[in-house]
Amino acid sequence: MNRPVYLDCNATTPLDENVRKTLELYLIQEFGNEGSRTHEYGSLAKKAVQKARDQVAAVVAAKREEVIFTSGATESNNLAILGLMEHGLATGCRHLIGTKIEHKAVLEPLEYMESKGFEVTWLEVDLRGRVMPEQMQQSLRPDTLLVSVMAANNETGVRQPLEEICALLGDHPAYFHTDAAQVFGKELAILKNQRIDLLSVSGHKIFAPKGTGALITRRRGYERPPLKPLFYGGGQERGLRPGTLPVALIAALGEAAEQAQKHQEKRKAACFAFRKQALAGLQELAPRQHGQEEHVMPHVLNLAFPGMDSEALLVALKDIVAFSNGSACTSSSYTPSHVIKAMGFTDDEANEALRFSWSHMTPEVDWAAVVERIRSLRS
Q: Are residues 358 and 280 in the same domain?
């Protein structure tokens, strides 16, 4: 089939071949229930889940028992934030810190907490799209319950200064959460920082199927983060995420995590090479890039061609490349990107923003054809 080149990997990624084989094995052959203790089918399923727990934990230098499997980063974010509500109410710690560029899966739980009497301080970002760590430090209070800062933005690909934030948090009792959906398995060192208490993971961003993810819940000494479940029934995942475990999806996530860790450098090099070609191919059109190059993930390019509406370009280029103009979770609405606006751009400028995102699997793009098509719209 003659299809456009897929450039929307921040929305979702294709399946890795090794992941596909693992998925099929546990969907078709080893289909047992992990909770069945009385026979071999259940035993093999349990071993697969434990292996996946170790594979996911290894990527972030966590322990097996600190991995809670979920349906993806949205559920993990909700569990990390809303799961602390009862503890906040009981201790009087009702202050939260978030950023204006978070994914809706973080923004909306924080807003919900706000509606329940919690106070939220919303951190600004600079023109590069980065949170200012000193603003976070100035916002900390004795009653701060949680600080939530994403590892890298899903629209711009801009990495956030997690190392500096961890250092500034120090031994403050506030829990630190990061939505690591766009970084897990791609940037290894930063997520191993033990000051990150809660870390959200999504499988379909790292070549695993949709519908699987994890929340890393790091202990402080012997104490787990005081999370409460969002729903009840069964007591699986240490009582935090009840329901029959989807063994095939979990095993696939584990395989994807292992493959990501094993091949991280090679994959990153391929993404950098693709980026170089993209920037070279588009430079004659003088696009405006959102995010400083040194801070942007190698597989993401958010830019604009001044005076050209992103919706028009999506239609004009749809037979050459498949890309987006923002988060897939908000693509049904045509409101200007809250991320680009937070960086100081106007509504009109935000409406010009395009997001290209690729992977080590992405084939070459005919950038000359892309340029020619855009030129034809300008004339």
A: yes
Distance, in Å, from the CA atom of 284 to the CA atom of 367, rounded to the nearest integer, reads 11
Does the annotation count 329 as an active-site position? yes
**Which helix (DSSP H) or strand (DSSP E) does residue 168 occupy?**
helix 162-169
Annotated catalytic residue within 9, 166, 271, 329? 329
Band of the pLDDT at 330, cuts 50, 70, 90?
low
Question: What confidence tens digit (pLDDT) does each residue in 86-104 have?
Answer: 999 999 999 999 999 999 9
Residue with tokens 């923002």: 326
> CA gyration radius for the chain?
21
Please give the helix or strand (H or E) that residue 345 lies within, else none: none
Indicate if 330 and 273 belong to the same structural domain. yes
Q: What values do phi and psi take at 119, rounded to 5? A: -105, 130
Token readout for 99 is 């950023």
Question: How many domains are there within the chain?
Answer: 2
How far apart (Å, rounded) are the C-alpha atoms in residues 182 and 215? Answer: 14
268 with 254, same domain: the answer is no
Give the CATH number, domain containing residue 273.
Answer: 3.90.1150.10
